[in-house]
Automatic annotation (TrEMBL):
Pfam families documented for this protein: Acetyltransf_3 (PF13302)
Residue ranges occupied by any N-acetyltransferase domain in the UniProt entry: 12-178
InterPro entries: Acyl_CoA_acyltransferase (IPR016181), GNAT_dom (IPR000182)
Protein's name according to its UniProt entry: GNAT family N-acetyltransferase
The keyword Hydrolase is annotated on this UniProt entry: no
GO molecular function: acyltransferase activity, transferring groups other than amino-acyl groups
Keywords, in A-Z order: Transferase
Amino acid sequence: MIAPITLSGRHATLVPLSQDHAPALAEAVRDGELWRLWYTAVPRPEDVAGEIDRRLGLQAAGSMLPFTVLDAAGVPVGMTTYMNVDLTVPVVEIGSTWYARRVQRTGLNTEAKLLLLGHAFEALDCACVQLVTHFHNVQSRRAIERLGARLDGVLRAHRRMPDGTLRDSACYSILAAEWPAVRSHLAFQLDRPNRATR
């Protein structure tokens, strides 16, 4: 089991997910009405507390480490996780991520991924980090590709969505040997003025 931890940067801070964050996260999810995107599984504002309980239950079972993402002012603006944790490899998946619209395509997501990848490769000694998204979630796929992750393939009829449809999942990964170049690339992106990366 991987232990809860706080990861801090200039644009984003990742703290252990807590029910204390539920009111602010319910407000964050209203920004952009993210639950209306059919190809995502973002909770409605009234379901945020239940989603926190679900993620904390998976943490207790050892398969997930969930975070609340705070902006530079310390305001909760989204969630992300290490999920499908397999410490025998070790490998983790970064996923179940959503952000308020106002922080999308800003340095916050780039830095959050930099912090998560850095901890996975440098502290957890992961051989691989996976990122998996809906085949039709083009925005997410482009963001993953901008990180430097490579497409491993598409799993057909991989997961059932809340609306009952079957999801094809685009599966990406970054290997430990690729991490130094990915780290340099993300640091460069963060240092660029007027950047617009998500």
